[in-house]
Amino acid sequence: MQSELGGLFYEMAIRDHVKLDVLTAKAAALQKLDGELAQVEHLLAGGVATAPLHCPACGTPHARGAAFCSQCATPLTPS
């Protein structure tokens, strides 16, 4: 997904047609998947499941360490 996001930005940039809403949506999907992967890795390492944190603006759950909400792109305070 990181490669796809980078490739998408590159293609938009060389055509001088960057669409930030599309890039933001793709980055949010990547961030959500990254949070899920971190939770799985934590569980596989013998950790216990933790309750997800929630965006203060829209209430969407997010992983600890997420910089932006995957739903509304609100900046999140470090946890």
Description:
With 79 residues, the protein is mainly alpha-helical. The protein has one domain. It is built from two helices and two strands. A two-stranded antiparallel ribbon has the order 1-2. The longest helix has 25 residues. The radius of gyration is 15 Å and the shape is flat.
What are the defining features of this structure?
2 strands; mainly alpha; 79 residues; two-stranded antiparallel ribbon
Question: What's a concise summary of this model?
Answer:
The chain has 79 residues and is mainly alpha-helical.
Overall pLDDT: 85
Shape: flat
Give the total of domains: 1
Question: What percent of the residues sit in helical stretches (DSSP H or I)?
Answer: 40-55%
Beta-strand residue fraction: 5-15%
Described by strand count, sense and barrel closure, the largest sheet is: 2 strands, antiparallel
Alpha carbon gap, first and last residue: 25 Å
What structural class is derived from the secondary structure elements? mainly alpha
Number of strands: 2
Annotation field: number of helices? 2
Low-confidence stretches: none
Rg for CA atoms: 15 Å
> How would you write the strand order of the largest sheet?
1-2
Which sequence of SSEs, written as H and E, runs from N to C? HHEE
Layout of strands and helices, then pairs:
Layout: H1 2-14, H2 20-44, E1 53-54, E2 61-62
Antiparallel strand pairs: 1-2
Helix pairs in contact: 1-2
